[in-house]
Design goal:
With 151 residues, this protein is of the alpha+beta class. The protein contains four helices and seven strands, in the order ββααββααβββ. It is 36% helix and 21% strand. The radius of gyration is 15 Å and the shape is globular. The protein starts with a strand and ends with a strand.
């Protein structure tokens, strides 16, 4: 069973990239619980957008630049679903990492004003994806991605 773990967090030119290793301890019970709660909060239609097979090619397709993405956006979620998604992000990052991620997302408002393009620079166009079926002994992964951020 392959498990993924964060090796390094690199902040360059306003973008965060995360480098991963192939061996690590299993995910914490809190992360499994948060991932399950997020998926369980979704309607079948939204879950189909958010959850993909572990071996999906999409799992290896990540960018921190503005590109077409797969997954479920914050914009498509109701308040309870958004809370569950953000809890997964909070559990998956340190407090400092979560704060940086939210600061980066908040910068979309400033970029929208500078570029006069609120459609392209929408802080609600950040995507959550879960690959596989989260469980304490299963192999699975999750991703949070948007402009300037990919985890």
């Amino acid at each position: 069973m392959i498990r993924m773990a964060v090796l390094a967090l690199i902040l360059t030119a306003g973008a965060i990239a995360i480098v991963r290793t192939a061996s690590a301890p299993p995910p914490s019970p809190a992360m499994v619980t948060a991932a399950r709660a997020f998926l369980d909060s979704l309607t079948p239609e939204l879950k189909q957008k958010a959850q993909m097979p572990l071996d999906a090619e999409e799992r290896f397709n990540w960018f921190y630049t503005p590109v077409a993405r797969k997954g479920l956006t914050l914009k498509e979620m109701n308040d309870a679903q958004r809370t569950a998604a953000m809890n997964l992000l909070r559990v998956g990052l340190s407090e400092k990492g979560y704060s940086k991620a939210e600061t980066i997302r908040a910068l979309e408002d400033i970029l929208a004003e500078i570029e006069k393009n609120p459609t392209r620079r929408d802080k609600e166009l950040y995507y959550f994806s879960v690959f596989g079926d989260p469980g304490p002994k299963s192999t699975w992964a999750w991703r949070y991605e948007g402009h300037h951020l990919s985890h």
